[in-house]
């Protein structure tokens, strides 16, 4: 329930800020904001402003809030190493990996849950790395170090920002094209029809296009996410000096009950038991095979 409430509040806040930003930008550009919502005709400038603000702006605002939302949604507690021996090892391991990767020390957090870990944050030098209690209990320290190397590689590669860029651009195109196509179809079929009928056609086409283009956009985002996971695995191997620890960590994960993360964090977790076009991670078998090829120098 807490996650649902937080999700609703966050999205309402994002929508409120984006709505204000949209109207302010329309005032600056001297365009009519209502022209972006016409039933049978659109002003393309107004529509472009609307699509950019809600597509790109919403994605980046969510990114800026990502650390706070992540900590609240999973109940993560930030640790500094003074809490106990396990926490001290965790913080010092992350610190060592950060120094090796030449990035600033991220916040380190622990949360109650099944085996998983994630990294998030708007900037590579102001990131958050979090691990679950179960993954700390069920993995050897060498395996957990490899997982931390994987998450630090996400930070080093700026994956949070690149994923936001990809999602924002796709959101913008979905919003723009769905309204544009709906307006064209409704306009073409408006001759001899009542206004109510044209409005009905507009809304039907709009929602069909929104669904169709949204699914296509999801496929692109998932494809990008899977490529990013291979790179993070290789990054962990580079930070640790060998692919072996990451291979062992992935094989261990294949035998563990995976921790379920909120939708906003799933792409940054470490799951991936099955291959799918809609999966944010490659299958564990494919990831292990890629690391084994790296190990053999292929």
What would you call the shape?
elongated
How many helical elements?
11
Mean of pLDDT? 83
Beta content comes to: 5-15%
Report the sheet with the most strands, covering strand number, pairing sense and barrel closure: 4 strands, mixed
In N-to-C order, the SSE pattern is HHHEHEEEHHHHHHH
Class inferred from helices and paired strands: alpha+beta
Cα-atom radius of gyration: 22 Å
Count of individual beta strands: 4
Distance between the termini: 48 Å
Taking pLDDT < 50 over at least 5 consecutive residues as the criterion, the unreliable ranges are none
The percentage helix is: 55-70%
Which strands sit side by side, in order, in the main sheet? 1-2-4-3
Task: Describe this structure as you would to a colleague.
The protein is of the alpha+beta class and 298 residues long. It contains 11 helices and 4 strands; from the N terminus they run H-H-H-E-H-E-E-E-H-H-H-H-H-H-H. A 4-stranded mixed sheet has the order 1-2-4-3, sandwiched between helices. Helix 1 runs antiparallel to helix 3 (66-74) and helix 9 (244-254) runs antiparallel to helix 11 (284-295). The longest helix is centred in the C-terminal third of the chain and has 46 residues, at 195-240. The radius of gyration is 22 Å and the shape is elongated. The model has no long low-confidence stretch (mean pLDDT 83).
């Amino acid at each position: 329930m807490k996650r649902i409430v937080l999700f609703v509040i966050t999205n309402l806040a994002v929508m409120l800020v984006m709505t204000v930003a949209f109207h302010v930008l329309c005032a600056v550009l001297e365009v009519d904001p209502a022209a972006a919502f016409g039933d049978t005709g659109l002003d393309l400038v107004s529509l472009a402003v609307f699509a950019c603000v809600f597509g790109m702006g919403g994605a980046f605002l969510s990114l800026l809030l990502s650390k706070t939302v992540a900590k609240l949604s999973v109940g993560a507690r930030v640790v500094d190493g003074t809490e106990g021996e396990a926490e001290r090892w965790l913080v010092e391991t992350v610190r060592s990996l950060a120094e090796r990767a030449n990035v600033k020390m991220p916040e380190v957090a622990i949360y109650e849950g099944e085996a998983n870990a994630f990294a998030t944050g708007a900037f590579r030098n102001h990131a958050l790395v979090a691990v679950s209690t179960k993954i700390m209990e069920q993995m050897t320290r060498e395996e957990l170090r490899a997982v931390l190397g994987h998450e630090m590689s996400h930070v080093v590669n700026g994956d949070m920002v690149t994923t936001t860029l990809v999602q924002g651009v796709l959101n913008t195109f979905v919003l723009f094209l769905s309204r544009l196509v709906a307006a064209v179809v409704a306009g073409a079929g408006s001759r001899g029809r009542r206004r109510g009928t044209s409005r009905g056609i507009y809304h039907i086409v709009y929602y069909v296009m929104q669904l169709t283009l949204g699914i296509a956009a999801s496929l692109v985002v998932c494809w990008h996410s899977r490529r990013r996971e291979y790179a993070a695995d290789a990054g962990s191997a580079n930070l640790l000096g060998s692919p072996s620890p990451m291979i062992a960590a992935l094989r261990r994960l294949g035998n563990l009950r995976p921790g379920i993360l909120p939708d906003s964090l799933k792409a940054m977790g470490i799951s991936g038991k099955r291959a799918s076009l809609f999966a944010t991670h490659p299958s564990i078998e494919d990831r292990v095979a890629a690391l084994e090829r790296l190990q053999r120098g292929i």
